[in-house]
Specification:
Elements (H helix, E strand, L loop, with lengths): L2 E7 L5 H12 L4 E3 L8 E8 L6 H5 L3 E9 L2 E2 L8 E2 L10 H8 L4 E5 L8 E2 L2 E2 H16 L31 E14 L2 E8 L5 H12 L3 E11 L2 E2 L4 E2 H4 L5 H8 L12 E3 L2 H8 L26 E5 L5 E7 L6 E6 L2
Parallel strand pairs: 1-14, 3-12, 15-16
Antiparallel strand pairs: 1-3, 2-3, 4-11, 4-12, 5-6, 7-10, 8-9, 10-11, 12-13, 16-17, 17-18
Length: 338
């Protein structure tokens, strides 16, 4: 079984949990995910299966679209609803929709985003979330001391000691990210729902935390749904419940599978001749004579500004993904699938 399976991840399991469960259903060891979703998050989780695992890096680099619900009034150590509240809740008036819209201007476009403490980024060779968990354990131990006092908050807010430390002083290095668009979908009470179209590596949890900081009221993420990853959205997705149906799960997986030939549709397709196909599978550079282009010139006129190409066999099968060769006018097979 080779191809892409788009799973509609439920809230609760980690992305690795989803991979493990699908492995059990399909009895296929070669399965990986392309873009981690936090346990709380739901939505599009593309899984690469079989030979498609070799294309994971290209899938992971694609843009994403999220629907995010942010609660204003206090921040948490994880920047989402699973974490512990940091300090006392904000007691003043919460921002209006217009104020939120203006504050979001700082996060539209390209900027250096600080990844959250609870992330997979490494600090000195150690995962940031491991350091954050150590800090959280120390905070819980401090809070459990006999003289620690709890500060009651409004109904529905988490309780936390007033001296609960924030994230560890050592944080991952900021990363350049781009938000192509951030739209306010709705505002109700202390929450706002946003639609975020962003590049890979963008942390919506960081957006929630940083927005709260900018507004001076504190904020954290309470719900997150990824509605698309690259060209694949929820309309292409299959639920774990459907996959884990003992009677029909495997058949449904085959029906939902996106074959190799339909993966990476954003990469320009280059139709190979039979000789070009033989050269491609051997990893040889390819010139105009190796392509069955009507012009007879090959893809040379498309090389400028294009990073990757799909090399397609005469029967439509995906042979390889290629990049521009150091030799001008040629393509070099980067990942060969046959």
């Amino acid at each position: 079984m080779d191809g892409l399976l788009v799973v509609d991840k439920p809230s609760g399991p980690t992305s690795h949990d989803v991979v493990a469960r699908v492995r059990r259903v399909l009895r296929e060891r070669r399965i990986g995910h392309t873009g981690t979703l936090d346990p709380m998050a739901t939505g599009v989780l593309p899984l690469v299966i079989g030979r498609a695992t070799r294309l994971a890096r290209f899938m992971s680099a694609s843009d994403k679209i999220y629907q995010a619900t942010i609660r204003f009034g206090f921040a948490t150590d994880s920047a989402d609803a699973t974490g512990r509240r940091l300090g006392a809740p904000f007691g003043g008036p919460l921002p209006t929709r217009d104020v939120i819209e203006r504050a979001l201007d700082a996060f539209r476009g390209t900027y250096a985003q600080q990844p959250p403490a609870f992330s997979a980024k490494k600090i000195g060779g150690t995962r940031s979330y491991e350091l954050a968990r150590q800090a959280a354990r120390a905070a819980r131990a401090l809070a459990a001391r006999p003289h620690a006092s709890e500060v009651p908050g409004p109904p529905g807010l988490l309780s936390a000691p007033p001296d609960l430390p924030g994230p560890p002083a050592a944080l991952p290095d900021p990363v350049r990210v781009t938000a192509h668009a951030i739209d306010v979908v709705s505002c109700t009470g202390d929450t706002a729902t946003l639609r975020v179209h962003c590049t890979a590596g963008f942390y919506v949890r960081s957006l929630a935390h940083d927005l709260g900081e900018r507004l001076g009221v504190g904020a954290h993420l309470t719900a997150l749904c990824r509605s698309s990853a690259g060209e694949f959205g929820l309309e292409h997705a299959i639920t774990l419940t459907a996959l884990e149906d003992d009677a029909h799960g495997v058949a449904r997986a085959h029906e939902a599978l996106v074959p190799l030939a339909r993966m990476l549709p954003a990469f320009p397709a280059c139709l190979l001749t039979l000789e070009g196909m033989r050269r491609a599978v051997r990893g040889r550079d390819l010139g105009p004579a190796d392509f069955a282009e009507p012009s007879g010139r090959g893809p040379g006129d498309r090389l400028a500004g294009t990073a990757h190409f799909r090399l397609v066999a005469p029967d439509g099968a995906l042979v390889a993904v290629a990049e521009v060769s150091p030799t001008p006018g040629l393509l070099h097979p980067l990942v060969v699938l046959m």
